[in-house]
Amino acid sequence: MVETKNPVANSVMVLREEFDDWAVLFNPDTGQAFGMNPISVYIWKNLDGKHPVGEIVKDIRVNYNNVPGEVDEHVNKFIADLVERGFVGYKA
Amino acid sequence: MKRKIMKTPKSVDLATTNNCNLRCKYCSHFSSPGEVAGDLPTEEWLQFIEELGRCSVMNLTLEGGETFVRKDLKKIIDAIVKNGMRFSILSNGTLITEEWAEFLASTGRCSSVQVSIDGSIPVTHDSCRGEGTFHKALQGLANLRKYKLSATVRMTIHRKNVRDIEGVARLLIDELGLSGFSTNSASHMGTCKQNAEQVQLTVEERGLAMESLLLVNKKYGGRVGAMAGPLAEAKHWTKMVQAEREGAKPFSGGGYLTSCGGPMNKIAIRADGVMVPCLQLCTIELGRINKDSLADVWQNHPELWRFRERREIPLTNFEFCKDCKFIPYCRGNCPALADTFLGDPYHPSPDACLKRFLEAGGKLPDEKLLMEKEACACV
Ligand code: SF4
Ligand code: SF4
Fold first, then answer.
1. Which of residues 7-36 of A touch B (CB under 8 A)?
2. Cβ atoms within 10 A of the Cβ of B27, count?
3. Do the chains contact at A12 and B84, CB–CB below 8 Å?
4. Is the pLDDT of residue B250 over 90?
5. Nearest CA of chain B to the CA of A55: how many Å?
6. CA-to-CA distance for B377 and B379, rounded, in angstroms?
7. Looking at chain A from residue 30 to 69, which residues have their Cβ under 8 Å from any Cβ of chain B?
8. Among the listed residues B29, B77, B55, the one whose alpha carbon sits nearest the alpha carbon of residue B279
9. Whole-angstrom Cα distance, residue B160 to residue B183?
10. Distance, CA of B102 to CA of B106 (rounded, Å)
11. pLDDT per residue as tens, chain A (92 positions)
12. What is the pLDDT of residues B280-304, one digit of tens each?
């Protein structure tokens, strides 16, 4: 099933951005930390409940070079993974 | 060239107080440069914790003195939770009531509480920490475990408990069912410096501690840990001797003052709010909380950069290391100890110098006592 609501990041999560545009996504409730590449960071920052996934994908195509054709599939998979981990929910 | 660093430190150690309910004979805090006048008011800590949250710091370690003497500790911990961080506590254990343990567990953010247990019986534990502290520390440990907190134990080895190492392992692992414990030894800092005769291990006792620790560690399948002190030395020095004998290639970081990686990912705050590289190294003052920006100090302070670049100083620079055959395998040891012995953190520490230990007649344990995975000289 394709989610039609806008994804929103769980406010408990902490994004530690580094100088090279990579970041660590930290869950203080569990102590788990995940490395994020610059595109993942860009997506994460847009998970504010105001941006539909389609719009995020469109923006990536505009703002980054050499974006693969199947980027929408990658973004959807990435967000689904974050939802499964409880880091992201959906806003109507 | 400047090394690559993180934008802000990942972890920060907070000396939340200067005070303690005990006066241990080998305390590294009292009578050290870390013992400063007065504690910060609650508001100062709360304001700084908000800044730590904005800097996306992940972990705080609360220590002192003894952090549980602070009446406002719950407020401080609430602020840590509210600002998206986790915390650990280093404690003597004697003030950890059931109510405290319940509170810590309720936060869901407590990574660990380390309690000091130095003996298997009151005589050995209390000899340096004070009468009645053994039972109180054990009670504190029991309270933490009742609430399923991650409770760890640190044994500080000194002259009065060096023959009780196996007893401590039996108590903690066999009787209490802990997964393991860590060790260190009374080091030449603070009060320990004044009581050195009474508490600091002699060369012979250091050898004895190394042998006992390797034996106990082997018996318990590697469940005794150490970042410093006789167990760490027993492992590292034995490998250094083996490597030198076999003409092995240099150890990673060997030949330079690389032993301390702290300033690459953490910073510390003294009880008076002064930022320092480490609570054991309080002489290098970097700024003051709520006055200087943490991120700015972290990214730009020249003394912190000098301290980070300590790693590039070769041991061949030092007269102290002249003609030492262990240079390719030596990392120069703890800068805080070098500072307390020589007033110079940019020097190898004489305390953990293998060459001097051997020259003083020190005996290393039998290499066969190393566990299989530790026995290779190719570190
Ligand atoms: S070693 Fe720890 S418990 Fe003992 S006096 Fe010092 S701060 Fe207090
Ligand atoms: S003299 Fe001591 S500190 Fe220097 S290289 Fe040799 S063992 Fe290391």
1. 12, 14-20, 24, 26, 28-29, 31, 33
2. 24
3. yes
4. yes
5. 28
6. 6
7. 31, 33
8. B29
9. 15
10. 6
11. 455 689 999 999 999 999 999 999 999 999 999 999 999 999 999 999 999 999 999 999 999 999 999 999 999 999 999 999 999 999 76
12. 999 999 999 999 999 999 999 999 9
Kindly report the protein residue whose alpha carbon is nearest to atom 1 of ligand 1.
B27
- The residue-averaged pLDDT of B197-207 equals 94
Ligand 1 center to B129 CA (angstroms) = 8
Token couple for B287: 């700024």
In this structure, the dihedral spanned by the alpha carbons of residues A3, A6, A10 and A15, taken in order and rounded to 10 degrees, is 110
Local confidence band at B379 (pLDDT 50, 70, 90 cut-offs): very low
What mean pLDDT value characterizes chain B?
Answer: 95
Question: What interface predicted TM-score (ipTM) does this complex get?
Answer: 0.91
Rounded to whole angstroms, the Cα distance separating B14 from B274 reads: 10
Distance from CA of B290 to the nearest CA of A (A): 21
Q: Quote the pLDDT of residue B12.
A: 98
Q: Looking at the CA of B241, name the nearest ligand.
A: 2
Contact B302, B2 (CB under 8 A): no
Cis peptide leading into residue B253 (ω within 30°): no
Q: Look up the pTM and report it.
A: 0.95
Helix axis angle, B73-82 relative to B98-107, nearest 10°?
10
Which residue in B70, B71, B107, B64 sits closest to B89, CA to CA? Answer: B64
String of DSSP letters for B208-221: HHHHHHHHHHHHTT
Give residue B115 CA to ligand 1 midpoint distance, Å. Answer: 11
Residue with the smallest CA separation from ligand 2 atom 8 is B330
**Residue pLDDT, tens place only, B206-228:** 999 999 999 999 999 999 999 99
B chain contacts of residue A33, beta-carbon cutoff 8 Å: 58
Q: Between B6, B10, B86, which is nearest A31 by CB?
A: B86
Q: Which residues of B touch A12 (CB under 8 A)?
A: 84
Which atom of ligand 2 is found nearest the CA of B356? 2
The full DSSP string for B285-350 is --EETTTS-HHHHHHH-HHHHHHHGGGG-BGGG-GGGTT-TTGGG-----HHHHHHHHS-TTS--S
